[in-house]
TrEMBL record:
HAMAP family: UPF0735. This is UPF0735 ACT domain-containing protein B5M42_18980. Residues 73-148 form the ACT domain. PROSITE patterns: ACT. The lineage of its organism: Bacteria, Bacillati, Bacillota, Bacilli, Bacillales. SUPFAM superfamilies: ACT-like (SSF55021). Transmembrane segments: none annotated.
Length: 150
């Protein structure tokens, strides 16, 4: 690629990818999981040449890897009672969410607004489950996703 060209990406169905590209992805997954220790072992196991592996290795990534750092911003209204925020944070941790920031307003008329930024990259598709479980928490009046991105 020329220095002044911008990289372009495409979303392609797996079944139309060339075999060498798919085997490269399989070899990379073996290496990432620690199932093999060397590139030589990985390519031998999947039936791929080392030259093909090196040709494609930096160009193929599973979509989940590209979307790895998913940050969701959630706004919640909490009753001003001891332990409610602690339970919310524990629930997020139980679902493999990682709280990055917390902003809480001073409680007015018995309610406080809390805005959390949560790294959901390890949660998979459980963001909907997180919202459902948050909304079921005693003392939590409202939970809404107000932002999402990486």
């Amino acid at each position: 690629m020329k220095p002044d060209e911008q990289e372009r990406y495409y979303l392609i169905r797996e079944d139309i990818l060339p075999e060498g590209v798919l085997k490269t992805l399989q070899a990379k997954e073996l290496l990432a999981r620690g199932a093999v220790k060397t590139v030589h072992e990985a390519v031998e196991l999947v039936g791929l040449s080392r030259s093909a592996f090196y040709k494609y290795k930096d160009a193929i990534h599973p979509l989940s890897k590209l979307d790895r750092e998913r940050i969701v911003t959630i706004s919640m209204d909490l009753e001003h009672r001891a332990g409610i925020l602690s339970r919310v944070l524990a629930l997020i941790a139980d679902l493999d969410g990682n709280v990055l920031t917390i902003h809480q307003t001073i409680p007015l008329q018995g309610m406080a607004n809390v805005v959390l930024s949560v790294d959901t990259s390890l949660m998979g598709e459980r963001i909907g489950d997180l919202l459902d479980r948050l909304r079921a928490q005693e003392g939590l009046r409202r939970a809404v996703v107000i932002g999402q991105g990486g």
